[in-house]
Amino acid sequence: MTDDAYLALLTGPGATLGVPPAAVGELAFMDTPAVRAWLDAQGVTPTSPELRLLPPEQTAALPEDAERLPVPLGDEELSRLRHETAPQDVARLEQELLAYRDCADGREALLARAVAAGVPPYRIAELTGEDLAAVEAVAG
């Protein structure tokens, strides 16, 4: 397996690998001279149906004769790509995990605000599903 994502031209059975780049949204590398030159050399546009973007974990499945170009992806771009290439049930779970992360980021601050406002620790634990000992530790 490689650490690089790849743009590839795929037809036939390999055409199900990856996703069209447009499915991932804005991608910084698409406007680079190297990518534009590669697309021109292949005679395709960024919206060509045979153009696919593959995450690093799928590149081993690329047919040997497929035209390909390694491309740099930022963390957010790679996350969006992996979300788009995940099976639908996994993609839904990933959305839930992201929502949980967003909620959990301010967890201790929210618990501390509730304690400071006078909400009893047992009630905070009841409302949040947090362990009472964890709430009491924040209430400290």
TrEMBL record:
* InterPro entries with a match to the protein in the record: DUF6003
Q: What is this protein called?
A: Uncharacterized protein
Q: Which organism is it from?
A: Streptomyces longwoodensis
